[in-house]
Amino acid sequence: MGYALQWIRSLVFVINVYVAIAVVGIALFPWALMSRRGARVACASVCRYVRWSAAWMVGLRSEVRGTPPVDECLVASKHQSFFDVFLVFSALPAGKFIMKKLLIWAPIVGQYGLRIGCVPVDRGKRGKAIKQMVEAVTEGAVQPGQLIIYPQGTRIAPGVSAPYKVGTAVLYEQLGQDCVPVATNVGLFWPKRGIYRKPGLAVVEFLPRIKAGMEPRAFLKLLEEQIETASDRLNAEAGFTAKD
Q: 240 vs 70, 162, 185, CA distance in Å?
């Protein structure tokens, strides 16, 4: 009975999230078209609302730990579900994502993504996309801020291993910026797929920054060690232990 009730609450919450995105997105769209600030206010408002409604609708509280950066830098985040997108973005003053090019055509989401400075990437042409993105940043075509990338390229469930892709190291080297790693355990409560949301405390943690200038391969190894170690710690704190 408890699981069934939580599943129903989760379904209502999921519907609530998409309704909120649509309502805020449409209501503030004129402002977003005229001003990037309008687009950012809309996105930040949705993030705050989702975190607030998750707490009382399904018992999913959230917490941001560490020190989110306020300067222009690369943010390399563990990605487990849609929820870490809300948490990471809500913690940054000028966050912008490297997003799948396909999302450009998603109603509301695509338009707002472009307005806040997100960089569309064609997964099938990653090398070319990274080159074009670096050129855009250098030429000032992309708005300054915190560029958020997912080093593993997609959502990875807790306890599942997946390689860290070289694209993050290429960006780190080419941009010449510090990188701030981010760990998380949100996938324990808000899965990659499915309706059910588990009560608990979802955490994203901003880790000590990695200064610019490291050799790319050494950087990628250090990045993976820091993120995976911290994510495993957050998972264990929530009572999860990966199976061997």
A: 32, 18, 9
